[in-house]
Design brief:
mainly beta; about 0% helix; Jelly Rolls; about 45% strand; six-stranded antiparallel sheet; about 270 residues
Length: about 270
């Protein structure tokens, strides 16, 4: 993953989605210095999802009377900014805060110095979902499960040291992962065969190691597997086809597609 970092009045912003994901979704990391604030923003056509991965922030949203309401978010908590909502993010801790922004790219984003933005609306930003999917190797939290019909999905992936995902591919799904804790080995670099009974030579795949603040993109059809070198956590944005999984090898003997038993007890 090649990131493009830009200095801002509030800190820095890095674009995380590489050229392979251009036009599919927005994926960015904001560093917000203590006491500093992003501009007030609104996007008429787009949903955005924000997750704090370091520090503490205060979210300020516009009210109908021209004032603002605020909520505080700590590490691994977050919110959705709905189309038309006016909001800004303020660094509210003793040190810099780091926030992941993910979302659709259907229209433009407007910025303003205050909460009164023409044609925008005052609305509450709902918290991200805590819907949990239990995996043989760890778990996933599907942050966008509480917003229907989005053109993107965002999740947190946790894998336990020594475990690995299935060797898999997707027919339609495009995904980008960004490591926020621990280390992972990623196997990738070859396209899946048409024959679903084909035997894959795993040794022929390219191996890369990813540590915090690094990541990768898997386009549709690419074979890939993640191996936890330590307990590791990543944030993954993808197109919305979450059940689009072909498992070529799997330590737990799972088949293709959605595994219903993994969703038992998941909250939305």
């Amino acid at each position: 993953m090649r990131t493009t970092e830009v200095t801002t009045r509030y800190g820095r912003v890095s674009r995380l989605a590489d050229q392979a994901a251009a036009g599919a979704y927005l994926f960015a990391e904001h560093t917000i210095e203590p006491g500093q604030a992003t501009p007030f923003r609104t996007h008429a056509r787009d949903h955005r999802t924000f997750v704090v991965i370091q520090g503490r922030v205060r979210l300020e949203t516009a009210r109908d009377d021209g004032g603002t309401e605020s909520s505080v978010y700590d590490r691994l908590s977050g919110w959705h900014a709905l189309p038309g909502c006016v909001y800004r993010i303020v660094g509210a801790g003793a040190g810099p805060a780091v926030v992941i922004e993910a979302g659709s790219v259907l229209g433009e984003t407007r910025e303003a110095t205050g909460p009164d933005v023409p044609d925008a609306v005052a609305c509450r930003c709902p918290d991200i979902s805590d819907y949990t999917v239990h995996k043989p190797w760890g778990s996933e939290v599907w942050y966008t499960q509480n917003l229907p019909d989005l053109p993107y999905a965002l999740k947190r992936i946790r894998m336990t040291e020594g475990h690995q995902s299935s060797l898999q591919s997707h027919r339609q799904k495009l995904e980008t992962n960004y490591v926020i804790e621990g280390e992972a080995t990623v196997l990738s670099g070859a396209m899946a065969p048409e024959d679903l009974t084909a035997v894959i030579d795993v040794a022929s795949l390219t191996t890369t190691v990813h540590r915090p603040r690094s990541g990768w993109t898997n386009p549709p059809g690419e074979l890939h597997r993640v191996i936890a070198r330590t307990d590791y956590t990543s944030i993954e944005i993808s197109t919305p086809e979450l059940d689009d999984v072909i498992r070529w090898q799997d330590d737990a003997g799972r088949g293709h597609g959605r595994i219903d038993s993994e969703h038992v007890g998941g909250r939305s």
